[in-house]
């Protein structure tokens, strides 16, 4: 399939053809296989649709800096929904980290599409804005908060966009691990997260890092008022990148909160606590699909 501006997007569909659809939207420097645990579990009963963001996985890597923005994030999601859902079909749409930002950006920019394509939404370890004020991996005294924001922005832009020189994988892996997973995470989870990071082209990493810093870096927020469908918000107690404060802000801002879930662990709850995440996705899918059946009967 292709995006509205012609970028080729890669998507895959798992599970029964007649199954209720769940769409999975991954985070920055990841790819479809970050959802391995969700796909293996949920595809037994649901039709699971997952895609790679532009600049990630098997999707095309735009070379122009202007090809990465919250507008593109929203439009690409809309293109995937249009290509993979039948006319009039609605789904549960779940996004992790930048995937949650994609869903919120889509709802803000395409409000009429929310009720047309979504029965419910799950926002996992994500944020609605003020990204740089909330990061917890760079602690400074309160009077130096402005310095922290500027430094965090520069670090994310730089670390996201530079190629990874050979010989310094140790420090890089430690930094990615600190941001992405909790201290008690299985080493295999850390290995997968870092592997996905290194496999993401520097152009894609940098393009999206700049887009996020520029779009929701400091005192900038995505409007949540159009997310009118039942919304599950999942945050983690030790998420250093998008801490629990971000999840609670979203829960306070969405008009139709179904549940706020607070898990242990770090930023990658879909890998660290997959059974819990899967359980809440199933509950949401079963609830909204049952509601639809009641209305149509």
Distinctive features:
single chain, alpha/beta, Rossmann fold, seven-stranded mixed β-sheet, 12 helices, 47% helix, globular
Estimate nothing, just give the exact number of structural domains: 1
Strand content: 5-15%
Mean pLDDT: 89
Helix % is 40-55%
The first-level CATH class name: Alpha Beta
**Shape label:** globular
CATH architecture: 3-Layer(aba) Sandwich
- Name the strands of the widest sheet in spatial order: 1-3-2-4-5-6-7
Structural class of the secondary structure composition? alpha/beta
What string, H for helix and E for strand, traces the elements in order?
EEHEHEHHEHHHHHEHEHH
Measured between the Cα atoms of the first and last residue, the distance is 35 Å
Low confidence ranges: 140-148
- Report the total helices: 12
Radius of gyration: 18 Å
Structure, explained:
One of its GO terms (molecular function) is peroxidase activity. The protein is α/β, with parallel strands linked by helices and 297 residues long. The protein has one domain: Alpha/Beta hydrolase fold, catalytic domain (Rossmann fold, 3-Layer(aba) Sandwich), CATH 3.40.50. Helix content is 47%, strand content 14%. It has twelve helices and seven strands. The protein has helices at residues 36-42, 70-84, 98-109, 111-117, 131-134, 145-161, 169-180, 187-199, 202-216, 244-253, 269-272, 274-296, and strands at 11-14, 20-25, 46-51, 91-96, 118-124, 231-236, 257-263. Residues 140-148 have low confidence and may be disordered.
């Amino acid at each position: 399939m292709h995006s509205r501006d012609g970028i080729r997007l890669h998507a895959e569909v798992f599970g029964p053809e007649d199954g209720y659809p769940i769409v999975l939207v991954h985070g920055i420097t990841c790819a479809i296989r970050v959802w391995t645990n969700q796909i293996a579990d949920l595809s037994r009963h649901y039709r699971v649709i997952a895609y790679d963001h532009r600049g990630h996985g098997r999707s095309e890597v735009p070379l122009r800096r202007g090809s990465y923005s919250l507008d593109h994030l929203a439009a690409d999601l809309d293109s995937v929904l249009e290509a993979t859902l039948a006319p009039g079909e609605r789904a549960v749409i779940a996004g992790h980290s930048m995937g949650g930002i994609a869903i919120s950006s889509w709802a803000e920019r395409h409000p009429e599409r929310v009720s047309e394509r979504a029965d419910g939404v799950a926002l996992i370890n994500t944020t609605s804005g003020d990204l740089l004020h909330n990061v917890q991996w760079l602690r400074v005294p309160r009077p130096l908060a402005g310095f922290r924001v500027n430094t965090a922005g520069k670090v994310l832009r730089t670390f996201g966009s530079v190629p990874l020189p050979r010989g310094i994988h140790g420090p890089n892996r430690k930094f990615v691990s600190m941001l992405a997973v909790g201290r008690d995470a299985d080493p295999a989870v850390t290995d997968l997260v870092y592997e996905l990071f290194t496999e993401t082209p520097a152009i894609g990493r940098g393009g999206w890092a700049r887009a996020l810093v520029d779009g929701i870096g400091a005192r900038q927020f995505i409007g949540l008022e159009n997310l009118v469908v039942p919304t599950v918000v999942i945050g983690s107690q030790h998420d250093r990148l998008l801490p629990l404060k971000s999840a609670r802000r979203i829960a306070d801002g969405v008009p139709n909160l179904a549940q706020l879930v607070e898990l242990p662990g770090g930023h990658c709850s879909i890998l660290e606590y997959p059974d819990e995440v899967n359980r809440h996705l199933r509950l949401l899918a079963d609830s909204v699909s049952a509601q639809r059946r009641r209305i149509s009967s």
